[in-house]
Amino acid sequence: RKRVIIRFGEISVVYEPTSDENYRSLVAEVIHACITPGEIAVDVGAHTGLWTLPLAKRILSAGHVYAFEPEPATFSALNRNVKLNHLTNVTTFPFALTDRESDRLFYIRQNTELHSFFDVTVEPYNQALEKSIVVKTHRLDALVSQGLIRPPTFVKIDVEGAELEVLKGLQGICIDDTTIVVEKHSAPLLSQGIN
User: Fold this and answer.
1) Which of 48, 39, 86 lies closest to 67, judged by CA?
2) Which end of the chain is more exposed for a tag (fewer CB within 10 A), N or C?
3) Contact by Cβ (8 Å): 154, 41
4) In whole angstroms, what is the distance from residue 178 CA to residue 160 CA?
5) Which of 38, 49, 45 is closest to 4 using CA atoms?
6) 9 alpha carbon, distance to own chain's centre
């Protein structure tokens, strides 16, 4: 079951939707509650656009969404969905965000929601690997400092267990006024001292 942690300043809230329909409803509720027109949003682990598309529609043309999806077929689907919805305030990137600039093995599974940096899935269930590919990784703070993206006011992270790595890649930017939404995969996070 997906668990989403939302941080509002010093407060963190855990949501545990019980179905895909509830998760889509949660996405809509979070976006409505946390986003206003003109904001800058980052969608880390954008998949096919479940968060990207409603974020772009909510922030309107004054804002912008930067969406990151490293798996090539899923990245293509994300771009098709952006085009289908005529969204001009979205920039997509075909690489992953972590805590380092590197090339890294990325494991592909039949269920596209379970692609990850880990050769074994931990939640919600194990699924066999199909193949592995090498993907580029970057730090979000480096992209901001290089002027490739604007400083975000909203960050959503859903990267199948590598969430802490993405958070470490935010250290070089001020996030005091940034709303951060993280899907929690407890086993990898707990093994790194986060609970």
Assistant:
1) 48
2) C
3) yes
4) 22
5) 45
6) 19
Class of residue 188 by CB neighbours under 10 A (exposed 0-12, middle 13-18, buried 19+):
buried
User: Could you tell me if 89 and 60 are in contact, meaning their C-beta atoms sit under 8 angstroms apart?
Assistant: yes
Residue 29, Cβ density class (10 Å: 0-12 exposed, 13-18 middle, ≥19 buried): exposed
Cα(104)–Cα(182) distance, integer angstroms: 22
> CA–CA separation, 127 vs 68, rounded Å?
23
Each residue's pLDDT tens digit in the chain (195 positions)? 566 666 656 656 666 666 667 777 888 888 888 899 999 999 999 999 999 999 999 999 999 999 999 999 999 999 999 999 999 999 999 999 999 999 999 888 776 677 777 766 655 555 666 788 899 999 999 999 999 999 999 999 988 778 889 999 998 887 778 888 887 655 444 344 443
Strand partners, 100: none
Return the DSSP state at 116: B
Residue found under tokens 């490739």: 148
Cα separation, 2 vs 34, in Å, equals: 20
**Closest residue by Cα to residue 107 from 52, 160, 50:** 160
Cα distances from 7 to residues 64, 90, 121, in angstroms, run 21, 24, 25
Please, what is the Cα angle at 175 between 67 and 47, to 5 degrees?
20
